[in-house]
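Data card: per-record layout.
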Amino acid sequence: MATPARQVPFAWPALTLDSSGVELRFAAPSSLAKDTPANLRITLALEQSTCSVVIVETLAPTATPRTELARFDLRYGCVFQIFSTPLSPSAAAHIAREPVRLRLLSGPPITIFTAAVATTPSDFPPEFSPHLLAAAPPAPPEAVLPRLATLACLQPFNWLHGCVVDALADAGDHAALSAHLGRWFHADGHLRYLGPHSEPRLDELFGLEPVLMFAALARHDPCHPAWKVLRRWLAKHTESDGLIIDRGLDAEGLASAVTYISIEAAYTVAYPLALAATALNEPSWRDLAVHQIRHRLAHLVRDGVVCQRAPLGGPGEQPHWARANAWFLLGLVKTLRALGDHDFVPEGIALLRTHAARILAAQRPDGLWSVYLDDPAASPPPPSRPCAPCGATGSTSPSCSRRCSSSPPSTPARE
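The structure for this 415-residue chain is written out next.
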């Protein structure tokens, strides 16, 4: 079966950067003062599962050497991901004043959004176009929700945007929630989105991660015809013991020789099922939600240590990872709130208190948590690079990839 061609979301304007280079003029804010540093930002329009380096250089006649002003080190990016690289005051002034050339130095070509076309659609967020951002203090906390409501906070159709629409639902911003969900849950009753590799998907789910999107849909539109997609997916992926799993598939829906169970599903699957059980009058889904919590306790939690994932029947991997603990706690809290008077609630509350106490005990003096709760010096693993198998009790084997290099120079600017 042929692999579907990759697509840019919503047919928004985009261009591909290769070794021949592209001339661009970056949008510059009026607040960009003279002799002030700034950040140069571009946004991925297609998923990038490899590493590429792009340089930004001055335009010059062929015989004259070009001056490099900045470079992007782009690694393992998803669609809508903004990458940012710092500029010196002189480089910022040059880019604000004149067009420059972006040229691929190494790695495969990348595709970014651009508004530099005559037919830019009115719904295209200008924040996704290449632009300069003046160096300034962070925006105040009260700026978060208004920004979250805009299309500039779109994420891929999976747990990433599931978090966004869940927050909009919590905030009660029904207009923004409708605008966001309507990008994929269409008025004609179909579910259309781009999968993890920018491939078009119609009325299907590629795995467990996009199930989180249905939590917000349950609160906003429990009658949408796309619920049949979730019902069909559940019928296919629910085991006889109630465990929901992608048997024979990896997290991106691709064939895998190993079937994993992951802790994220405590949030991405258990919570939306518990919420939808009431909204859709599906009482059996509450029990199904509890099964997801119980199975993850059995497979991924040992003596209070949470592992991010494990092969079925095998040892846990990524023990003590802070994000795994956050997913587990978030899923537990959200699921318990949605379960109402279910018999599991008292047990779940006791579990929550016990685990929260362990997490608080691992908090650093600065109020933050390390990437790995048991190792304040550990640096994060590169994105999309799974950790090698660790023991469920927290092995620190030198072969474990949790002892990896730190993040790349070009910072993914998550909004």
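Known properties of this structure: Residues 144-412 form a domain with the Glycosyltransferase fold (CATH 1.50.10.10). DSSP finds eleven helices and 16 strands in the chain.

See the next section for split statistics.
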